[in-house]
Amino acid sequence: MRISKQIRLHDKEFEVSIWEEDIVEAVRRVAERINVDFEERSMPLFISVLNGAFMFSAELLKNITIPCNISFVKLASYRGERSTGDVMELIGLSESIAGRDIIILEDIVDTGNTYECLVETLRKHSPKSVRIATLLLKPDVYSKELPVDYVAIKVPNEFIVGYGLDYNGLGRNLPDLYTLIS
Ligand code: IMP
Ligand code: MG
Fold first, then answer.
1. pTM across the whole model
2. Distances (CA, A) of 148 to 27, 65, 85, 139, 167
3. Across the chain, which distance is largest between two alpha carbons, in Å?
4. Nearest Cα residue to 64 out of 41, 100, 104, 33
5. What region does 120 belong to: left with phi over 0, alpha with psi -120 to 50, or beta?
6. For position 176, what pLDDT does the model report?
7. 122 CA to centre of ligand 2 in angstroms
8. What is the tens place of the pLDDT at every residue in 50-107?
9. What residues pack around ion ligand 2 (CB closer than 5 A)?
10. 110 catalytically annotated
11. What residues does ligand 1 touch, defined as CB less than 6 Å away?
C-alpha cells in the first residue's frame, strides 16, 4: 500500500492522486500507439508546448522508436481587436510545418480553448495533418469538436499540479501528480 503524500504550494494543500510509476506506464502506452500509427506514415514532427509539457514530452519521446523531429514552442495569447477575439502567437517554431504530420504535445486539455487556438494557428502554415497527445484530459470540461487523439490519463474536473503542471509557478518539478484538497 502506498502512503498518502501531501504538500503545500503557496496557500493551498495538495495530495498525490497519481503516482509517478502509473504516469510513466500510461505515457509509455501512448508512445506505443503513436509508434504503431506512424510506422507507415511520413516522419512526424512533435511540437511540445512549454512550459507545462516538458516532463511529459521527455518521457513520451524516450519511448518513441520511429524516426521523428522534435520542436518546442511557447504560446503567447493576447486579446485581439474586438472582432477577432483572442489571438495566439507561437514562439520558437523553427521547422517548416508545411506538408508535415504534426503531433502536438500538451500537459493538459481542459476546456480545449488552447488546443483549438493552437490548431487554428498551425493550420495557417499548411501542415498535412495535426494530432495531439496530452498527458491529461478533463473529459467533463472538454467542449470542442476536435478529437483529442492520444490521452495518457483522464482526470475529473479538479485542479492538478506536478509532472510539469504548476500552481502559480510552483510544482512543475514534482514527479507525481497532486490534486488540490483545500
Ligand atoms: P484549456 O482550458 O484547455 O485551454 O487549458 C488551458 C490551460 O490551463 C492549460 O494548458 C493549463 O496550462 C491550464 N490548466 C488547466 N487545468 C489545469 C490544472 O488542473 N492544473 C494546472 N493547470 C491547468
Ligand atoms: Mg499548457
1. 0.95
2. 15, 22, 24, 10, 24
3. 55
4. 33
5. alpha
6. 98
7. 16
8. 999 999 999 999 999 999 999 999 998 766 555 555 667 889 888 899 999 999 999 9
9. 52, 107
10. yes
11. 52, 108-115, 159-161, 165
Query: Which grid coordinates belong to 24?
Result: 510513466
What's the length of the chain?
182
**How confident is the model over 40-54, as a mean pLDDT?**
96
* CA dist., res. 48 & res. 27, Å (int): 14
Q: Cα separation of 86 and 73, whole Å?
A: 18
Q: Is the peptide bond before 63 cis (omega within 30 degrees of 0)?
A: no
**Sign of the CA dihedral 62, 89, 100, 92?**
negative
Residue 18: what are its φ and ψ, rounded to 5°? -135, 125
DSSP 167: B
Question: Ligand 1 centre from 177 Cα, in Å?
Answer: 14
